[in-house]
Structures are given as structure tokens and as C-alpha cells.
Specification:
single chain, 387 residues, alpha+beta, Butyryl-Coa Dehydrogenase, subunit A, domain 1, Butyryl-CoA Dehydrogenase, subunit A, domain 2, Butyryl-CoA Dehydrogenase, subunit A, domain 3, 3 domains, four-stranded mixed sheet, four-stranded antiparallel sheet
């Protein structure tokens, strides 16, 4: 993949950088956005739509840009750099990914234009209390109603953007046992549909999630994305791989911002009458942060390049390798940034702690470093450099 940006890609990068830099100029604006009813700024979300960012991966026939992982990477890196909290990941990457890879032409035509316009937010309801990082570990049941529709019963936890989503995409078991790879379906459920109960809460990184219960929730035939075939796992795995590539880029943006913040701080913070950045041990630590960041950046590029790979085995090996390095680098850069800042780095009134919290959440999302290292060991894949 050629990472020299085209004119269109450069325009996307410049637009999102300017918009988010203005929207998150200081932590007061972020705090105000978190207090809004949706848990994020509705005005900011409208700007995403106005700039065309919500249409990046969608086909032109639906009003999208018909772009790919590289353009998504540019947006996600800017989100990480500014510690933005809008539900781009949950709506465009996760929910939108399911629509792009699994939904029928009629479902895409009905839903995607609203997503692009910013009037429909999506959330992928997949994770359960017992499932940890196993996408096939699903106990939520979907029973056929005999007319092409289904009735869903079960519970999902930590659904990103789930409390404000207009449409939920629910993973439920049609057939088989708890961890069977076959027998999973995908269903469209209204966020306020009868039988749906959402308990929303703030996450540690300033975002929003929800625990959702489904009690006798009826889904019509027109809202079944993957039904009797039970082949939803392949779609789900592909979308999660794309999401890992996206948050890898976000992590690089956050790490880069934290490193810049740290370097600026050690140049001005004085001890014994001189800037602490003049101490050799501080300089070595700063260089180590830069090295870890560049290792993460190279692997984020690999993840971006491989996100659209049709060979699932090759794609998963590269994505897992990237996730391992991103996790290692994020932990090192985060801890070093906090250490070099001292006490101020832990306060909510200073950005360093916000970056560290988001990096910690990214390390755990869709499988932590240990999980993906085990996958690599089984697959005989690339082993990232040690941090």
C-alpha cells in the first residue's frame, strides 16, 4: 500500500485535524460534551457528517466516499491525538462494517444514508459476561418465529455507544452450543424496541457504553442480517479486524500527542535550577518513548494495509501482530509519560492522564496483548519486537 497521501486523503486529514483541534482545544470543552444527554457533543457529531467523515467507508451509491482503511486510519489517528469521544468507532467502523460486509442491498439502502447524514447511530451488541475475547462465545438466543423473523433473549455487556445508539446490531445464537463457531446470527434491533433495556454508563476513558438485556424481543424478517445459515462469525471476525486496525491508528495518535506533551513538559519543568530535560536519564526515557511510538506506527500501518485482505488467516495474523505491538507500546509510552510528568500527569485537569486512560482501554479492546500473542503462537505468525 502506498502511504503517500493523495490530494483527497490530504484534504480529509486536514479537515478532521482542524475540526477536532478546535473542538478539543481544552479539557473544559470535552467535559462539557460529556455532560450532554448523549454523552458527547451533538454539534461535533454534526460536523463529522458535514465533512463527510461518516461516509468514508461506504459505497458512493449510498452517498459515501467509497474510501478504505487508509482514510479511516487518518480519522482515527486524529481522534486519538485529540482524545475525542464521539462514537465514530461504534457507528462507522463496527456497526457500519457489519452493514457493509453482511447486510442485504435493501438493508444497506435503508440504513447507510442515515448513518452518513449523522441521524442514525449504530452499536454492535456482541460481548457477553463470560465471553472475554472469544467472538464465538455467545449464549444470547434467537428463536425462529416461523415467519422468517426471530425472538431474541439474552444479555450483552460493555456495548460501545450502546446507550445512545438508534439501532443495535445484535449477535445471537440460532443453533449449536455456547462456543460453536457455526450457528450465529446478526439482527437489527431498535434501541428503544419493546423488551430492550439499556443501562448506560461512562467508561474510564471518557466514552460511553451500556449493558443491554433483551427479553422476548421480536425481529422481523426484514431486520435479519444473517439468519438460518448461521455464518455470522466470519462477518464478525472481519469487522473486528477492521476495528483493531482503526484503534491501532487511534493509539498512535494518542501516543504521539502524549509524547509531544511529555517532551514539552520536561523542557520547562525545572529541578535544581535546570530543566529536567537536560538530565541524561530523562533524555534516554524520552528516546525510548519515541522508539516505542515508531514501532507502534509501523505496525498500525501494517494493520491498515491488511484490514481489507480477503484471506482471513493472513489478515488475522497481521492484525494480531499489530495488536501485540500496539499494546506493548501503549503501555510503555503511557507509563513513561505519567512517570516523567509526576503527580500532575494523574490529574483530570491535565491531558496526559486522559491519553493514558484511553491507551489502557485500547490495549484491552478486542483482545489484549497476551491474547493476540497466543493467537500468533498457534498460527505461527509474526512476533512483534519486545518493548
Amino acid at each position: 500500500m502506498d502511504f503517500d497521501l493523495s490530494d483527497d486523503q490530504r484534504q480529509i486529514k486536514d479537515s478532521v485535524d482542524r475540526m477536532l483541534a478546535a473542538a478539543y482545544a481544552d479539557l473544559k470543552t470535552k467535559a462539557a460534551a460529556q455532560k450532554e444527554p448523549l454523552g458527547f457533543s451533538k454539534a461535533n457529531w454534526a460536523q463529522y457528517a458535514e465533512l463527510g467523515l461518516l461516509g468514508i467507508p461506504f459505497a458512493e451509491e449510498h452517498g459515501g466516499l467509497g474510501a478504505g482503511p487508509l482514510e479511516t486510519m487518518l480519522v482515527m489517528e486524529a481522534i486519538g491525538r485529540n482524545a475525542a469521544i464521539e462514537p465514530f468507532l461504534s457507528t462507522v467502523v463496527l456497526g457500519g462494517g457489519i452493514l457493509r460486509h453482511g447486510a442485504s442491498a435493501a438493508q444497506q439502502a435503508a440504513l447507510i444514508p442515515d448513518v452518513i447524514a449523522g441521524t442514525r447511530r449504530l452499536a454492535l451488541a456482541q460481548q457477553e459476561r463470560q465471553s472475554r475475547f472469544d467472538l464465538a462465545d455467545v449464549t444470547t438466543k434467537a428463536k425462529s418465529d416461523g415467519n422468517g423473523g426471530y425472538v431474541i433473549d439474552g444479555e450483552k455487556v460493555v456495548v460501545l455507544g450502546g446507550d445512545s445508539a438508534d439501532t443495535l446490531i445484535v449477535v445471537a445464537r440460532i443453533a449449536g452450543e455456547r462456543r460453536d463457531r457455526k450457528g450465529l446470527g446478526l439482527f437489527l434491533v431498535g434501541g428503544t424496541a419493546a423488551g430492550v433495556k439499556r443501562t448506560g454508563y461512562a467508561t474510564q476513558d471518557g466514552g460511553r457504553a451500556a449493558d443491554i438485556t433483551f427479553a422476548d424481543v421480536k425481529v422481523g424478517a426484514e431486520d435479519v442480517i444473517v439468519g438460518p445459515s448461521g455464518d455470522a462469525l466470519a462477518v464478525l471476525e472481519r469487522v473486528v479486524d477492521e476495528a483493531i486496525a482503526a484503534i491501532s491508528a487511534e493509539a498512535v495518535g494518542a501516543m504521539g500527542a502524549l509524547q509531544d506533551l511529555t517532551v514539552d513538559y520536561v523542557k520547562t519543568r525545572k529541578q535544581f535550577g535546570v530543566a529536567i530535560g537536560s538530565f541524561q536519564v530523562i533524555q534516554h526515557k524520552s528516546v525510548d518513548m519515541f522508539t516505542a511510538l515508531e514501532q507502534a506506527r509501523s505496525m498500525a500501518y501494517l494493520a491498515t494495509m491488511m484490514a481489507s485482505e480477503d484471506n482471513a488467516d493472513e489478515r488475522r495474523r497481521s492484525i494480531s501482530a499489530a495488536k501485540v505491538q500496539i499494546g506493548r507500546s501503549a503501555r510503555f509510552v503511557g507509563e513513561a509519560g505519567i512517570q516523567l510528568h509526576g503527580g500532575i500527569g494523574m490529574t483530570m485537569e491535565y491531558k496526559a492522564g486522559h491519553y493514558f486512560k484511553r491507551l489502557t482501554m485500547i490495549e484491552m479492546a478486542f483482545g489484549n496483548s497476551d491474547h493476540h500473542l497466543r493467537l500468533l503462537a498457534k498460527a505461527g505468525g509474526l512476533i512483534p519486537a519486545a518493548a
